Amino acid sequence: MTEKQNTENQSAEVYANPVTEREESPAVQAERQSAEKTAPVEKQPEQSVKKPVEKPVEKPVEKIAEKVAENGTENGTERAEKPAPAEKSAGQQVTKSAEAQENVSADANNHAEADAQAQGKRPAQKKGRGGARRDGNRPQRQDAKKRDEKNSDEHKSNNKAQGENQNQNQNQNRPKKNGKPKQQPQHDGVKHEAGKPAGKQGAKQERAEKPEKTERAEKQNNAPKTKAPKQRAERQQAKLPVVASSEEVGFVPGTGEGQAKVRIIPLGGLEQIGMNITAFEYEDTIVVVDCGLAFPTDDMLGIDLVIPDVTYLERNIDKVKGFVITHGHEDHIGALPYILQKINVPVYGTKLTIGLIENKLKEHNLMKSTKRKIVKHGQSITLGAFRVEFIKTNHSIADAAALAIFTPAGVIVHTGDFKVDYTPVFGDAFDLQRFAELGKKGVLALLSDSTNAIRPGFTASERTVGKTFDAVFAEHKNNRIIVATFASNVDRVQQIVYSACKYGRKVVVEGRSMVNVIGTASELGYINIPENTMIDIDQLKNYPDEQTVLITTGSQGEAMAALSRMASGMHRKVTIKPNDVVIMSSHPIPGNEKAVSKVINELAMKGVEVITEDTHVSGHACQEEIKLIYSLLHPRYALPVHGEYRHLVANRNIAIAMGVPKERTLIMSSGNVVEICEDYCKVVDQVQAGGILVDGLGVGDVGNIVLRDRQNLAQNGIIIVVLTLEKYSNQLLAGPDIVSRGFVYVRESEDLMDDAKNIVDNAVADCLDRHVTDWGKIKNIIRDSLSDFLWKRMKRSPMILPIIMEVE
Questions:
Q1: pLDDT at position 254, please?
Q2: Which residues of 731-765 are buried (b: 16+ CB within 10 A; e: fewer)?
Q3: CA–CA separation, 258 vs 246, rounded Å?
Q4: Where are the beta strands (DSSP E) in 162-235?
């Protein structure tokens, strides 16, 4: 049969006979004619085949086409089976029922000989495998048939996994004869042809003219497919992002086998306010977020600062890729000058943050040795295996940022210190849109600020403080105004400047840290100070009190801050007057309440009016803002940070209320090594962490023992016992003499000192009589004897320090 005749037959009978690209051999024609005689398709009633052909078969074919178009060619071993029937010989169309029929030859596969005959007789079932290759190469077709028979069981199991129900419906509606499926009726092709575009036949003919693709597709069809779904699932599991679901109500921890695991190591910032530093580790990459300091507590006598212990980072210094800083507060950048001397890696931050860091580096002569990189909001940096994106947030300092850390295990969001301010004084509002985008893609874990997690409601906007300043300035036009606030609160200073300009006052900035921050912010364009508004403190005496405003440090009651020295009368250039008005534009940090109260009392004693109401808003998010972040991100795990333990618990409760299962929340402690992946989040190890005490220029030379001695000295005082012995004879030449400091006033306690001296004399004489020559034993005997006496007599335990001098 020629190709021209075949075209005519298609328009008249539509698929009654198979069409080949070349003429068929007599043997093939004989087989086809016998098949036509045994399948009287024209006598089939038209209505009896509409249901199984038109409706049930059409949908599976459309789904197969959609899956092929969606999945592409990534997993060719399985997907090649579906498009293979589309590669037909020239002029031959594939009906939807014929494509489905190729997947359901269950009975025919059990009879290899009958199947071989049936494949030659059924044009719709073997078009894709024989039609395009009928070019005289019949041994290849026979080999393909044998491979089909050999792998029939594997094809059956794979076909069941793809669409078992659809194939069963087709088998039920298809009439059979002698165990062989019948050909589809001719009018089936007519119905399909009427619904298809005219150009589809030509497209299939062009594909049929490429026998190489058909052979390749057949080889893929004949390959075993039982392992393909498992391999594809493993690849997808490694590539797809982790998608958290807030609708999950239970959690069964998995083993995490085959999953990327990231380690989160908080080295500070937990169970305390300040000293924020957290390390993120994956294989040979460590990225450190923030590096802050903490201020000493009351029991840390003589200590200036507390910085984090970074022994773990020192031991893994080759892995550390850099410090990523969220904002420029001291509890996030204060320790950098000390840590960079040990771990010299690049520092990344926003413009103002880097500017404030550079001020500290200049003081420690580290500008040349430290690399700094300014990152804008919305930009990302790649550090080893991590990609870190800076996201715009609001805080009590400009240029604050949250971090989206893209790790092999998933996206981890670190909020830094934040609040949601829709009307900030400087810059843009909180980038809630980016948070929502991350939430849609899936967030593995959220490390959220917990400082105000115990406070309900929302945090007020910074602009509300400006209204309070205006009211105070308007009410006290005849008074000098002194405003105490945080040195780094640039937006607060900006609003004070606005009010001063509005009421015609000159502005004086006092306090070293305040001067440095305002100078840097002014240079970088983060604060706008009109000309002739700022004056030096030395020029303050040239202006009347009602025309000046002092912006100073000391809002936390620091002993050496400017306001504290003014209140105590120790400031050399500013003297507090009874007519002054002091605005405390801050809330005491937990632990500083007593110091702040002391300063306020001293100011009140001088007749000063102190204003504390509505003069401050927090820079940290309250409960409703934290809920907003959880609702946008939908994190799989919640790990509260930045706060005391009660704050962390409150943040965890908020996460649970927002749909995070309790089992997926974790309250970390400093030094915990938290391993996290999609299946679990748990503490797997502990590293050295804590605080390093800075006293003057000494870093780490003051430890717990020194602090204990200082506390003992502060509470009980010291007694020093001095005596002189001859070098060789060990005879007592002088003493013992007793010196007391911080114990009793010697001139009023002469009897006590004489009795104490007698106790020491007896102890020394006893040692010499027993020929005790070890000075260590002599000192212990003196210390024990004198300590027992003082406890029985005074109920005190001063530090006793025996000193033995040797003379030849």
A1: 64
A2: ebeebbebebeebbeeeeeeebbeebbebbeebbe
A3: 25
A4: 176-177, 180-181
Q: Which two tokens stand for residue 476?
A: 């006290």
Query: Is 0.85 surpassed by the pTM of this model?
Result: no
- Among the options 329, 476, 620, 647, which is catalytic? 620
Instruction: Give CA–CA dist 170/101, Å, rounded.
Output: 8
Amino acid making up residue 111? H
Q: Report the alpha-carbon distance of residue 392 to residue 428 in Å, rounded.
A: 8
Token digits of residue 273? 């306010």
Nearest to 340 by CA among 363, 513, 326: 363
Burial 188-200 (b: 16+ CB within 10 A, else e): bbebbbeeeeeee
Report residue 519 as tokens: 């100078």
H or E segment and range at residue 454 = none
Residues 584/611, Cβ–Cβ less than 8 Å = yes
- Helices assigned H by DSSP within 634-774: 645-657, 704-716, 750-769
Does residue 616 have an active-site annotation? no
Concatenating the DSSP letter of every residue in 573-634 gives S----TT-EEEE-S-PPTT-HHHHHHHHHHHHHTT-EEE-TT----SS--HHHHHHHHHHH-
329 given a catalytic annotation: no
Q: Who's near 608: CB < 8 A, 6+ residues apart?
A: 576, 577, 578, 580, 581, 582
Q: Which residues pair with 287 in a beta bridge?
A: 280, 322
| Rounded distance between C-alpha atoms, residue 397 and residue 328, angstroms | 7
- In the set 148, 290, 449, 491, the catalytic residue is 449
Residue 372 · residue 354 · CB < 8 Å = yes
3-state helix, strand, coil in the chain (%, to 5): 45, 20, 40
**DSSP states of 750-794 as a string?**
HHHHHHHHHHHHHHHHHHHHTT---HHHHHHHHHHHHHHHHHHHH
pLDDT less than 50: residues of the chain:
1-23, 38-142, 144-145, 155-252
Fill in the amino acid letter for 529. Answer: I
User: Which residue, among 262, 635, 624, has the nearest Cα to 435 in the 3D structure?
Assistant: 635
Q: How far apart are CA 323 and CA 347, in angstroms?
A: 5
In the numeric block, which tokens belong to residue 632? Answer: 């946008």
535-544: b (≥16 Cβ within 10 Å) or e: eebeebeeee
Token duo for residue 117: 């005959």
